[in-house]
Amino acid sequence: MAYQRVLLKLSGEALGQPDTGHGLHLDALANVARQVARLVEIGVEVAVVVGGGNILRGAQFSAVGGNRASADYMGMLGTLINGLALQDAVEKLGLDTRVCTALEVRQVAELFVRRRALRHLEEGRVVILAGGTGNPFFTTDTAAALRATELECEVLLKATKVDGVYSADPKKNPQATRYEELTYAQVLHQGLKVMDGTAITLCQENALPVIVFDVFREGNIERAVRGERIGTLIRG
């Protein structure tokens, strides 16, 4: 394995309906769960940060008149719904999991405590991280960079609907080119829409590599962990 402890960042849309990305879709959940289970089988420690865009995006809700802080908290609760759904899908495959959240919701998940989460990983449990950072105005990409750093992960796997980072939106511009490798500085200076600037800067400061790849092609998560060149690698 190229990496022994990884953080997988999933957008909420990756768990949603295939045509719209909204809500939850059992086949999408099962696809991700199978890929995560495969990593555990080959001895990789896996943490997962889930987004909530399939349920609600705080920035979009506030743009139409909602209070931004309240909207962001609503989005955080959406990530908790996704985390519980993913937990169910993974546990159906016989794996042990823990949902750890930045928000205190003791009836359904445990509060994120770094040392406890590290212990779960060492024991072979899949740690699903919900609630973002627990603060409004921060994205789940930033939460992924933060948790990956806290949990001493060796790579951040950014799972998307496309097979890497492009110079422009490939759906709108057929001339867009895909990058095989980028530096953090290139992402920031070119304004590439990979992760928000705070997340990229945090990865840069901690020398945390990021691999952006297509999660809908089954087996891609394992390929990335084995060190195969898929998607786009971002590093210093």
Would you give an account of this structure?
With 236 residues, the protein is α/β, with parallel strands linked by helices. The chain has a single domain, classed as Carbamate kinase. The chain is built from 8 helices and 11 strands. It has helices at residues 26-41, 58-63, 68-91, 114-122, 140-150, 184-190, 197-205, 220-226; strands at residues 5-10, 45-50, 97-101, 110-111, 126-130, 155-160, 165-166, 178-179, 181-183, 210-214, 232-235. The strands form 2 sheets. A 9-stranded mixed β-sheet has the order 4-3-5-2-1-6-10-11-9, with helices on both faces. A two-stranded antiparallel sheet has the order 7-8. The mean pLDDT is 95.
Key attributes of the depicted protein:
single chain, 236 residues, alpha/beta, Carbamate kinase, two-stranded antiparallel ribbon, 19% strand
